[in-house]
Amino acid sequence: MMIRQEAPADVDAIRAVHGAAFARTAEPGTTPVEAGLVDALRSDPGWIPALSLVAVDDTGAIAGHVVCTRGWVASVPVLGLGPLGVLPRYQGRGIGSALMHAVLGAADALEEPLVALLGEPAYYRRFGFRPASGYGIGAPVPAWGEYFQVRALSAYQAALRGDFTYATPFNEV
Questions:
Q1: Per-residue confidence band for 91, with pLDDT thresholds at 50, 70 and 90
Q2: What is the pTM of this model?
Q3: Bridge partners, 52 (sequence order)
Q4: CA neighbours within 13 Å on the CB side: how many for 62?
Q5: C-alpha 89 chain-centroid distance
Q6: Which of 132, 131, 123, 121 is nearest to 86 (CA)?
Q7: More confident of the two residues 35 and 173
Q8: Which is nearest to 90 in space by CA: 133, 67, 131, 61?
Q9: pLDDT for 23-77, tens place per residue?
Q10: Angle at the Cα of 95 (from 89 to 101), degrees rounded to 5?
């Protein structure tokens, strides 16, 4: 498995990855919102091409995808992570973990202060994510509670506090 930056030819495969990865959470007969979210994010000013990564199998097929886009804590630029998806036949093989480590490393190299996400604490804790409230960062939806988490990176400053805002397409899901 190799992890690389998304290429223009990967768009359809990335949509298919998220469609399959999130199919169980969608209403029967509908396309998961995550499949279209990445397309909408690509058109947003918050899109950061260097932080849209794919995992490619030995045949060159896309097996997984992760993306971080521009978010804000108060007026400070930070990152929002998501979606992260892996084709069902590849799940449980460490591809999601490899994508997470790669995107966090890339974000840190770009000197981003933190990454925020909405997700299962038991899964994301292993990557250093903690409840955002412990950092003084408010969730876009307060009811998200401990599911809204952040991962501080090397450029993080403890004075960074306030409410988090995702890139605009997240508000349209």
A1: very high
A2: 0.95
A3: 67
A4: 26
A5: 20
A6: 123
A7: 35
A8: 61
A9: 888 778 778 899 999 999 999 999 999 999 999 999 999 999 999 999 999 999 9
A10: 160
User: Does 173 have pLDDT greater than 80?
Assistant: no
Outline where DSSP puts E strands in 76-169. 76-86, 114-118, 130-131, 137-138, 148-152, 162-165
Q: Which residue's entry shows tokens 């995550």?
A: 34
Whole-angstrom Cα distance, residue 158 to residue 100?
Answer: 23
User: To the nearest whole number, what is the mean pLDDT of the chain?
Assistant: 95
Report the distance separating Cα 60 and Cα 123, nearest Å: 28
Residue bearing tokens 């490619």: 56
Phi, psi of 25 (to 5 degrees): -95, -10
Among 144, 6, 5, 138, smallest CA distance to 72 is for: 138
